[in-house]
Design the sequence.
């Protein structure tokens, strides 16, 4: 027994770092010991030093030492060891706690002083129990209960201390916490007191509503939460239905006969005869489906039946909002949620989005595109039949922000790849005694005791003088979400804010190239390196007009100018971090029609490049050529070897003079065809690219919409189909006026 107690003491000593002996030689010492254990109190170095002493607890004498012996009554529980000047208290009780005082005397009985010590006898914390409960607003109350004296509680979730965004009720030191909606993870409650510690962990799943469902109506539809529970009211009063069988598919769940459940007890699906309701706990998707109750009278005659349809859905949760700046300054925002059949709705600054704010209109999808320069407080709300959830964010518009102001939560900043960005974290560093700066949830540095911890990073210096931090040599991996976690002097979290940094390659090396199309239009393309370039064009200082533009979209990097347009053309490119431009003097396209080295050339060429023919003509091709184009195409390829002036051709020339004339026409026609064909292709290419740019989000939207419709109509079909099919035959069965033979037949069938 003693051995066990000693072992326990040593173990506790190790765990709680309390020395196994209690040093009473220091005045005011404090000793903590475990209930039922023992304590060795060192009263002095050597008993010879103190000829007489009295040891008292709460003023009653326990031990009197005089003339080299203990003169108080011997107490086996509290032996004194003169050999080493220590006293032991065995089998510690709670009432051994208290103030102990040693009064010391010299040989003549003169008081030479006194010392006190406090002994605390505590029950160890143990058998930690965690219990959780869902509150009405789906917060979760978790309580941690431990046996033991003076327990102190601390909590972690997934390894970190609980944050404000997780805690609904804030005090984490108590044994009861309330977590916000939709919080799940690995929760640990640690309990300690001065002599021991213990902990308990559990995997928490967020709360889902328990739904109730009225199964007294035939054809009822009920929705319930995956992993939740549902109460289904089968009847008002169980005495109304002397016997019944509750069936799902081909399996009997519950059979009620003679006021008893005769099916094997199922803890997951208890029936409450007191109120005629049945509960299904821990719902899974396979609990979805049609449930049927067959009702019988005392004699076993069928009285009728009812069905109900149960839909088990995963609740919508963990809504995530993300946004993107599109090349033309619109902002694409997508809202993503876990859960079945989510329906999305959006508000900006409290009102539903208007046409003047929305660029792409469908607000029921999870992706919207906002027009340029829209900012405010955006909320995406998601709901399905069993739950709802939402997420909000502050939008800053997609315009370029010259400096990066991290003092606003949700700021957006842009930095140049390879460049640097200054982020203003706070007005004054003295406002925030401690903070932690994270990127994508991993710490960059801490600010603690007026120092950067772990050490100064030369690439990311912090300037306490003005509360700003610089990131040098920006790379794409510096893009992301930065979080400032702020703490007070005691290390208590006092809030956080985030900012998004976008590192973009600057637009640069703008290249302009041009091409003459078959009808004399000029295609000009502007190409730039860099991220998300936005293009704009001017000709002779003004933006391009319809009378100059053949293909109208001036925001793409390819334009097509009408015939005979010339002038000073500028292509400007910009993104959030830079801009660049390229200019050229455009000469128009000219039509040439000549023979060079025996080759017939008839096409539109750029005027300055026209070295093909000596005398360019400006006669445009007529539409006649395009109409014969198709026919001549195959002829052209068959006769193409002839074009190079093979000798046989030349020899035959005098004979086939008339034919030659025809051939020349055919040749021109075929070239014209090729040109026309090429032009079509080019125009197509232009249109295609424009389409692609616009389709990026349009696509998503349309696909989503269709998906939803299909889903919906499937659901609708299934629901109504089942209701319809089950209704008719059952109506006749439930009709109490149907004669006995019907019942008899039904019964036989069973
Ligand atoms: C003092 O001596 C006793 C008896 O030998 C021993 O059990 C005890 O552990 C000693 N106490 C200290 C504090 O050394
Ligand atoms: C201390 O508690 C024990 C029981 O744990 C009891 O027997 C004893 O009388 C108590 N002593 C005093 C002084 O109250
Ligand atoms: C029926 O009774 C049970 C047990 O008392 C209770 O838990 C349940 O909520 C009740 N159901 C309804 C629908 O009243
Ligand atoms: C803050 O101070 C540093 C060092 O003096 C300076 O380089 C930096 O530009 C300042 N930042 C801002 C935002 O004023």
Sequence:
């Amino acid at each position: 027994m003693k051995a066990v107690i000693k072992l326990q003491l040593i173990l506790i000593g190790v765990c709680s770092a309390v020395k196994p002996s209690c040093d009473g030689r220091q005045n005011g010492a404090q000793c903590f010991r475990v209930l039922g254990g023992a304590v060795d109190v060192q009263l002095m170095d050597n008993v010879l030093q103190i000829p007489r002493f009295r040891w008292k607890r709460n003023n009653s004498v326990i031990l009197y030492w005089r003339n080299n012996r203990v003169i108080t009554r011997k107490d086996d529980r509290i032996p004194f060891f003169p050999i080493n000047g220590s006293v032991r208290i065995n089998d510690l009780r709670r009432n051994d706690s208290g103030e102990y005082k040693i009064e010391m005397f010299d040989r003549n009985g003169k008081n030479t002083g006194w010392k006190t010590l406090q002994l605390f006898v505590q029950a160890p914390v143990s058998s930690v129990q965690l219990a959780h409960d869902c509150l009405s607003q789906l917060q979760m109350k978790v309580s941690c209960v431990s046996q033991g004296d003076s327990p102190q509680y601390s909590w972690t979730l997934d390894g970190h201390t609980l944050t404000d965004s997780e805690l609904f009720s804030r005090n984490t030191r108590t044994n009861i916490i309330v977590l916000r909606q939709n919080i799940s993870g690995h929760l640990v409650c640690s309990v300690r007191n001065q002599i021991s510690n213990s902990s308990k962990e559990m995997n928490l799943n967020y709360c889902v509503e328990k739904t109730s469902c009225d199964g007294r109506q035939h054809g009822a539809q009920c929705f319930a939460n995956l992993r939740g529970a549902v109460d289904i009211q089968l009847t008002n009063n169980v005495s109304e239905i002397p016997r019944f069988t509750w069936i799902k598919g081909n399996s009997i769940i519950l059979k009620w006969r003679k006021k008893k459940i005769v099916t094997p007890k199922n803890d997951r699906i208890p029936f409450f005869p007191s109120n005629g309701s049945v509960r299904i706990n821990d719902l899974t998707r396979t609990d979805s489906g049609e449930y049927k109750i067959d009702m019988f009278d005392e004699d076993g005659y069928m009285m009728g039946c009812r069905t109900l349809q149960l839909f088990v859905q995963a609740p919508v949760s963990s809504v995530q909002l993300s946004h993107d700046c599109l090349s033309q300054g619109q902002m694409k925002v997508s809202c993503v949620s876990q859960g079945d059949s989510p329906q999305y709705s959006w508000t900006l600054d409290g009102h539903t989005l208007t046409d003047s704010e929305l660029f792409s209109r469908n607000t029921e999808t999870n992706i919207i595109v906002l027009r340029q320069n829209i900012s405010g407080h955006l909320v995406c709300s998601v709901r399905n039949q069993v739950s709802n959830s939402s997420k909000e964010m502050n939008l800053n518009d997609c315009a370029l922000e010259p400096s990066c102001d991290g003092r606003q939560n949700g700021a957006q900043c842009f930095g140049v790849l390879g460049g640097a960005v200054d982020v203003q974290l706070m007005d004054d560093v003295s406002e925030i005694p401690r903070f932690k700066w994270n990127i994508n949830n991993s710490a960059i540095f801490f600010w603690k005791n007026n120092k950067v911890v772990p050490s100064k990073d030369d690439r990311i210096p912090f300037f306490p003088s003005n509360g700003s931090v610089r990131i040098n040599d920006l790379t794409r991996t510096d893009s992301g979400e930065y979080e400032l976690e702020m703490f007070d002097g005691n290390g208590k979290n006092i809030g956080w804010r985030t900012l998004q940094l976008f590192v973009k390659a600057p637009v640069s090396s703008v290249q302009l190239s041009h091409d003459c199309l078959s009808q004399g239009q000029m295609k000009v393309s502007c190409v730039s390196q860099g991220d998300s370039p936005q293009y704009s064009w001017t000709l002779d200082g003004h933006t391009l007009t319809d009378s100059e533009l053949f293909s109208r979209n001036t925001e793409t990097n390819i334009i097509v100018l009408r015939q005979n347009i010339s002038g000073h053309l500028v292509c400007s490119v910009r993104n959030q971090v830079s801009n660049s431009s390229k200019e050229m003097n455009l000469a128009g396209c000219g039509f040439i029609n000549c023979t060079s080295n025996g080759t017939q050339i008839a096409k539109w060429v750029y005027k300055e490049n026209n070295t093909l023919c000596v005398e360019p003509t400006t006669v445009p091709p007529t539409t006649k050529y395009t109409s014969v184009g198709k026919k001549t195409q195959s002829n052209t390829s068959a006769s193409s070897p002839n074009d190079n002036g093979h000798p046989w051709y030349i020899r035959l020339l005098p004979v086939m003079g008339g034919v030659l004339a025809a051939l020349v026409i055919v040749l021109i026609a075929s070239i014209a065809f090729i040109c026309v064909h090429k032009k079509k292709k080019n125009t197509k290419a232009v249109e295609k690219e424009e389409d692609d740019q616009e389709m990026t989000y349009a696509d998503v939207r349309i696909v989503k919409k269709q998906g939803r419709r299909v889903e919906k109509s499937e659901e609708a079909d299934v629901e109504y189909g089942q209701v319809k099919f089950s209704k008719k035959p059952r109506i006749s069965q439930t009709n109490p006026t149907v004669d006995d033979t019907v019942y008899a037949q039904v019964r036989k069938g069973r």
Observations:
- Helices lie at 2-16, 623-643, 647-652, 657-734, 740-749.
- Residues 1-19, 615-656, 679-750 have pLDDT under 50 and may be disordered.
- Residues 21, 40, 42, 81, 83-84, 86 surround 2-acetamido-2-deoxy-beta-D-glucopyranose (ligand 1) (CB under 6 Å).
- The chain has six domains: 5-121, 129-204, 227-313, 320-395, 418-504, 657-748.
